[in-house]
């Protein structure tokens, strides 16, 4: 189980400007995803959720990023506006349960394995390689 | 001109495992890019440069990321192992000269405009949108 402390200092960024291909809905897919996440992320075991105007991953909507002090930052794309919310929250829970943000590959939700866009080391936890 | 303070707290992450398509060199393209950057980034006006084992942007080698407290983090791909070093350092200098990391679009090097993979808000400078 993810610890609450891990989730309390974890931020989930959601691109609100992502527009799904061929989707002509007035409310953009990214904005709908943000609403779905906020609706489903309730109680103490929820990350902070922030809407962001463009994560610059425009070719792979919907897009989110997760960051936390001392942990790697991950960016994920190809997420469904409605169906992905529960999966994302599960994945973030696993992330928050680690010390460095690296969830073992096989334990990651399939949407995270396939949708990973980038990962960036923690600013406060250098991992320099020679 | 970028201020030195801006560069001193800026980190340039370089993926050392990036392998250029069709490149059979023993030393991977990402590792060559890291060497080129370290060679050219000299003096006070240089960011901290860290090699990283995989930024998870494997389809768009070479890849770098730039991060700094209070500024957006940017990830760039499609960079040439040898030819891009100077351009990257120029772009990082412009980044370090801003307060939030957002360089006006027209001022960005073309390699950054075309190669942007993702951007992530500063952890310490929330930018929530409704």
UniProtKB/TrEMBL annotation, chains A, B:
CDD domains: TRX_Fd_family. This is Metal-binding protein. Pfam families: DUF1636 (PF07845). It comes from the Bacteria. InterPro entries: DUF1636 (IPR012863), Thioredoxin-like_sf (IPR036249). It comes from Methylobacterium gnaphalii. SUPFAM superfamilies: Thioredoxin-like.
């Amino acid at each position: 189980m993810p610890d609450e402390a891990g989730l309390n200092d974890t931020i989930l960024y959601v691109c609100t400007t992502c527009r799904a291909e061929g989707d002509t809905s007035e409310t953009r897919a990214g904005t709908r995803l943000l609403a779905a996440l906020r609706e489903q992320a309730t109680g103490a075991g929820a990350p902070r959720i922030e809407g962001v105007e463009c994560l610059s991953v425009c070719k792979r909507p919907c897009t989110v990023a997760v960051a936390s002090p001392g942990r790697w930052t991950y960016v994920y794309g190809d997420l469904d506006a409605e169906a992905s919310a529960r999966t994302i929250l599960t994945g973030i829970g696993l992330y928050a349960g680690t010390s460095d943000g690296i969830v073992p590959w096989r334990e990651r939700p399939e949407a995270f394995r396939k949708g990973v866009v980038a990962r960036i080391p923690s600013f406060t936890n250098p991992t320099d390689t020679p």
